[in-house]
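Practice problem 4.
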């Protein structure tokens, strides 16, 4: 049997191909396209190629590209999908020998390129936010963008428009304008009214103008600075009104030395004035009506001009006075005591105790409190003539606004031992009572109060009260007859309830003899 005819693609024994020459010229090109690395096949592979055994015809170029497309070459990850076996004519069990060139066509995006593009986008966003933060901080701190110095060290940028301006989220933390301490200069910013500066000025003014009188009344210098309280302030904070008191040193039974003050902010500084001066009367006369009424300003003007000499005719009956009564209800009987201040006259102050303990206003007027602390305080009522009655050591003091109108007999507090302005405790609850001018005490010698005439005696130094033929010494009982003249004979005036007509209260009270008490030596 004849040997089978060798295929034209089979190799000869010498390794040379017996194919026609035009087929031999095309064979290397197909080999180079199908082989990824030329000249790197092993000897065994070359031996197999040269083997005389018959082999299958190589796939054409179109078949190889179809097989590569079935395998997913040139497609991105999302586009790859399984294909059915045998759908593209790919021979099973045969893999492409090498990776051929990609066919011409639009470039496809790979997964690595997608990741690189996403990273670039994120980096751009982060960089933009960082630059935006730098610009925003430069605008807020007022410095130019890109300045190398500290924030705010260079020229401040112009304020942006209202539409682009950032909101002020914490206006209370802005730096306050610089103050000149009430002196109107020395600071780069405009001075503004400061209550602390005003309080300091009034304290120094009180010590300077009232320190000498307080020293004479107390016997020693005050051991504490004056107590200043601003009780009223205008809406624009340029007008102020209040009280000042020189505290009584410890161990002294005196009443505190007090004064009212008015102040105005002008020319970059406070200009305060104390009662008893022409400046005070001028300031209260020009205060805004919403802060002080015209009637109160006139009353304070009269009080500021009241001295001990001018008050005497209003208290001794020489001219019409305020019709004062004793500081408790009409008809009540209390015990009389006199002042014990060092170097003071026996009737510079009075003290009353007993009865129902309710202290009442001696006459009509306006009320002012000093050293006010809750229900404590020194109370002064300024009467229509300008004379003032003062009340100290009370507890449960009525808490009225300074300048409030009170009527004769209105309750002011209860007897007690409170000392908001200093002093020494008393052995018993009491109320200290005195008459005051603008800057000094008004002596009670010759004063007509509550139907009694108060007198002083030189030797021995003694103060007492008399009504007709009756005299009441310290420690005696006396009734409040109200605002009636003390010159009427006993029994002609209406006697208080519980008292027998013409009969004085027991204890410390005596009938006058042929010689009056002021004539005794």
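Answer key:
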């Amino acid at each position: 049997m004849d040997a089978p005819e060798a295929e034209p693609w089979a190799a000869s024994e010498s390794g040379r191909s017996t194919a026609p020459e035009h087929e031999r010229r095309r064979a290397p090109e197909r080999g180079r396209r199908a082989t990824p690395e030329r000249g790197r096949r092993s000897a065994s592979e070359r031996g197999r190629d040269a083997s005389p055994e018959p082999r299958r015809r190589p796939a054409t170029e179109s078949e190889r590209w179809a097989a590569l497309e079935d395998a997913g070459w040139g497609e991105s990850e999302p586009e790859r999908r399984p294909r059915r076996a045998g759908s593209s004519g790919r021979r099973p069990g045969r893999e492409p020998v090498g990776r051929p060139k990609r066919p011409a066509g639009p470039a496809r995006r790979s997964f690595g390129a997608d990741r690189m593009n996403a990273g670039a986008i994120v980096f751009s966003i982060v960089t933009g936010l960082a630059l935006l933060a730098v610009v925003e901080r430069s605008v807020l701190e007022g410095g130019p963008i890109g300045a190398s110095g500290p924030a705010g060290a260079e020229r401040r940028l112009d304020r942006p428009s209202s539409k682009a301006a950032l909101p002020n989220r914490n206006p209370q933390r802005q730096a306050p304008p610089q103050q000149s301490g009430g002196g109107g200069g020395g600071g780069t910013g405009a001075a503004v009214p400061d209550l602390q500066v005003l309080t300091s000025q009034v304290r120094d003014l009180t010590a300077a103008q009232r320190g000498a009188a307080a020293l004479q009344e107390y016997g020693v210098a005050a051991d504490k600075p004056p107590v200043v309280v601003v009780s009223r302030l205008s809406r624009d904070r340029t007008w102020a009104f209040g009280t000042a008191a020189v505290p009584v040193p410890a161990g002294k039974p005196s009443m505190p030395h007090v004064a009212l003050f008015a102040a105005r902010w002008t020319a970059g500084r406070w200009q305060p004035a104390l009662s008893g001066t022409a400046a005070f009367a001028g300031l209260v006369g020009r205060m805004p009506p919403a802060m002080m009424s015209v009637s109160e300003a006139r009353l304070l003007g009269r009080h500021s001009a009241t001295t001990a000499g001018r008050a005497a005719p209003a208290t001794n009956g020489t001219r019409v006075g305020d019709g004062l009564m004793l500081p408790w209800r009409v008809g009540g009987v209390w015990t009389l005591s006199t002042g014990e201040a060092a170097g003071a006259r026996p009737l510079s102050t009075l003290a009353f105790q007993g009865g129902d303990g309710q202290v009442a206003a001696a006459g009509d007027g306006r009320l002012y409190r000093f050293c006010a602390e809750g229900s404590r305080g020194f109370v002064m009522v300024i009467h229509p003539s300008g004379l003032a009655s003062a009340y100290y050591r009370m507890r449960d003091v009525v808490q009225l606004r300074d300048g409030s109108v009170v009527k004769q007999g209105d309750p002011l507090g209860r007897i007690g031992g409170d000392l908001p302005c200093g002093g020494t405790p008393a052995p018993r609850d009491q109320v200290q009572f005195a008459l005051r001018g603008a800057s000094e005490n008004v002596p009670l010698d010759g004063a007509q109060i509550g139907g009694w005439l108060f007198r002083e005696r030189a030797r021995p130094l003694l103060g007492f009260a008399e009504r007709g033929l009756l005299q009441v010494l310290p420690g005696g009982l006396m009734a409040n007859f109200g605002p009636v003249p003390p010159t009427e004979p006993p029994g002609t005036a209406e006697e208080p309830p519980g008292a027998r007509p013409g009969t004085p209260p027991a204890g410390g009270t005596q009938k006058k003899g042929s010689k009056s008490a002021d004539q005794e030596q």
